[in-house]
């Protein structure tokens, strides 16, 4: 199956994680085929918040969410929505999610996330330089703003970040508005993360990485994978009409990875956490210079090349459920409380987008060899951190396949944690 002496590897999934894997493996001398049923960066990598959120070292499973959830679900502007029809299917995942709220597990998962996040942006820098895409990484930090949260609680969050060695500053109202003058006077406090970055165009970032991979020799095939068959010396993948043999495959198909792993008899408690975004044209006004996230409203506003992107919300429903674009336009209503001068939402449909985050109950991705299949490597389940962890995941996948020592301990990210 080798081509000109090069081992053939298929990367399944052309989102930001799969693209980083493809670039790293092609750079290492493998012959890579990138495969996706839609196109380059057409999933979550297209309309996301563009936030390299290295400060987010805390897992989503936290005890206080249990008390906040009813209010969030019944709030028409709330950050969480749940389809009643989908609730029975979600219960097993939610049970595991609650199990990960235990302090011992939460501490362990925090350290694992921190090991990936702490240098995640550095892994992008040389990569983007090689891809002639340095302009797509902006290092101006980010703000987490508070409207009604008491200073005591804001201070507790501030101290929690400090304890994890995340660089952060606690700002009062005057200091916050001095940093971002267009913020609404509703804002009372903020946490400023100076080492965080953002991109002005997530889709362009994906396309630039794809161009770079192609120049290195990587090929792209637009097709849907129906079956995976593991052989003693390789892996066969089938589209239904064609059977394609490879020496090795990398599964980086995001929320669609669960179906592929089920064929290989693996349990993967992955849920598609649907998130929405809405784009606002704001070319003539300097609205923001860095991402601003709302602590209470749980969404984020990011300055981009086209203007502003409002992104966030959580919706649990099946992968095929029709999008509820009211969830996207709702973001504009929330943004009126965060920005003093907010551009109008001209077209609620054309500027709205839905992406499906691949979410696991412990907030950790799966990175590593498939436990029972030596020719299959996994890079999936990155939750809200796919963009953030794309480059370091690609580097780790290259090291795993080359049987090298990995830059971070990948033990916490092994699929075996769900298959005991």
Task: Describe the 3D structure.
By secondary structure, this protein is an alpha/beta fold. The chain has 2 domains: 8-45 and 203-268 and 363-418, 3-Layer(bba) Sandwich (FAD/NAD(P)-binding domain), CATH 3.50.50; 55-101 and 137-200 and 270-359, D-Amino Acid Oxidase, Chain A, domain 2. It is 32% helix and 25% strand. The chain has 12 helices and 20 strands.
Features:
420 residues, alpha/beta, FAD/NAD(P)-binding domain, D-Amino Acid Oxidase, Chain A, domain 2, six-stranded mixed beta sheet
**Terminal residue distance:** 33 Å
Q: Portion of residues in helices?
A: 25-40%
Low-confidence stretches: none
Average of the residue pLDDT scores: 93
Oligomer: single chain
Q: Would you tell me which CATH topology of the largest domain applies?
A: D-Amino Acid Oxidase, Chain A, domain 2
Counting structural domains, the number is 2
Q: Write down the overall geometry.
A: globular
DSSP helical segment count: 12
The CATH homologous superfamily name of the largest domain equals: D-Amino Acid Oxidase, subunit A, domain 2
CATH level 1 name of the largest domain: Alpha Beta
Q: Kindly state the number of beta strands.
A: 20
Return the structural class. Answer: alpha/beta
